[in-house]
Amino acid sequence: MLKVLFLCTENSCRSQMAEGLVNHDLAGQVQAFSAGVRPSRVNPLAIQVMAELGIDISQHRSKSVDDLAETNFDLVITVCDQAREQCPVFFGPAEVLHVGYPDPARSTGTEEEIMAAFREVRDEMRRQLLPLLKEKLRAPKPQKGCIAAGPDQEL
């Protein structure tokens, strides 16, 4: 089974949603984890938009990347620019990728506009990350390194 770590700054929104999506949609094929370089708490709006898809992340907790130091990952995906910049060194076979998303917790506007921002990030993650991980499942074991997808590149 492919072990994937989603890394974000606070492990409150993006990485939590990615973990939930992958463990739900790719159960039995991929085991996803999430952590932050400065963990805080799981954002209630992330919990709410995931529940809209029937995915319960209400029992998730915000974790430090240090909490998972003993886990050997096949793939580490940073989902925010700050986490990419502060990405710790991973020893072993872990391939490190960056697939950045805007922080929905920084959205402003009406309650509905803020919820729309959370849904947009959630849905974009599903569109991008699941095919990426399915491809990784079919591909030979990756080399260690870091690859960043630019705004004009397809994943």
3D structure, described in words:
The protein has 155 residues and is of the alpha/beta class. It has a single domain, classed as Response regulator (Rossmann fold), CATH 3.40.50. Helix content is 34%, strand content 17%. It has a five-stranded parallel sheet with strand order 2-1-3-4-5.
* Helix share, percent: 25-40%
Q: Would you identify the CATH H-level superfamily?
A: Response regulator
CATH class: Alpha Beta
Helices, by number, come to: 4
CA gyration radius, whole angstroms: 15 Å
Poorly predicted runs of 5 or more residues: 150-155
Give a quick summary of the entry.
The chain is of the alpha/beta class and 155 residues long.
Task: Identify the notable features of this structure and list them briefly.
155 residues, 5-stranded parallel sheet, 34% helix, Rossmann fold, globular, alpha/beta, 4 helices, disordered C terminus, 5 strands
Secondary-structure blueprint of this entry?
Blueprint: E1 2-8, H1 14-25, E2 30-36, H2 44-51, E3 75-78, H3 81-85, E4 95-98, H4 111-138, E5 145-148
